[in-house]
Amino acid sequence: MTDRITLMAAGELRDAVDAVQRGDTAAAAHALASIDPESWRAIEDRLAALGGSIAALTTTTKEH
To answer: 47: burial class by Cβ within 10 Å (0-12, 13-18, 19+)?
Structure first.
């Protein structure tokens, strides 16, 4: 069974990606730290299934 990602966590992840694009590391870290543990695991699992990671997602986002 796949863990669920809460709407709040999805929004925090979006905010983190947006912050990385702006170069605001503190805001990105704050957004990522605000994600609940269950959603965090679900996000990591889904990204891993796609061959990625949160680190790769934020690095790729920053480069574009």
So the answer is: middle
* Distance (Å, whole) CA 40 – CA 44: 6
Q: Per-residue pLDDT tens for 15-62?
A: 999 999 999 999 999 999 999 999 999 999 999 999 999 888 777 666
Using the predicted structure, report yes or no on whether residue 2 has a pLDDT greater than 70: no
Q: Is the pLDDT of residue 1 over 60?
A: no
Q: What is the 3-state secondary structure (H, E, C) of 11-64?
A: HHHHHHHHHHHHCCHHHHHHHHHCCCHHHHHHHHHHHHHCCCCHHHHHHHHHHC
Helices 7-22 and 37-49, interaxial angle, to 10°?
70
